[in-house]
Design goal:
By secondary structure, this protein is of the alpha+beta class. Helix content is 24%, strand content 24%. Strands 1-4-2-3 form a four-stranded antiparallel beta sheet. Strand 2 and strand 3 form a beta hairpin. The longest helix has 15 residues. The protein is globular. The protein starts with 6 loop residues before the first strand and ends in a 26-residue tail after the last helix.
């Protein structure tokens, strides 16, 4: 079974984000909710190339997904590649399109040929 490889889930609010996501760093996140059995249901996956804390805060009050998970990434490229992996593993209903790469980066998805 696929794993997000992230910390959480935590409540999606600014105070909780600041308590849990303490570094300014590239990173990945998932937004979702729990089912009746307490399993986290992935509704959306995303990334930040520079500050995952700030990116998560941009979602507060703008989504019906009350929980988040996150992980730090060693670089923007690592965050992009993990977002692609999570997108392919979970096919989240909130992600309408494949994750985009930064303009001019030339990065490739590790799972498909979308950028060929």
């Amino acid at each position: 079974m696929a794993s997000l490889g992230m910390n959480g889930p935590y409540k999606l609010d600014e105070a909780t984000i600041d308590t849990q996501v303490t570094r300014i760093s590239p990173g990945n996140y998932a937004l979702g909710k729990k089912d009746d059995d307490g399993t986290f249901l992935v509704g959306y996956v995303g990334r930040s190339d520079s500050d995952v804390n700030a990116r998560l805060k941009s979602w507060v009050g703008k989504t019906k997904r009350p929980l988040f998970k996150y992980s730090y990434a060693s670089s923007a490229k690592a965050a992009f590649e993990k977002e692609c992996e999570n997108y392919h593993d979970f096919n989240p209903p909130g992600n309408d399109v494949h994750p985009d790469r930064p303009s001019g980066s030339g990065w490739k998805c590790p799972r498909c040929n979308i950028f060929s």
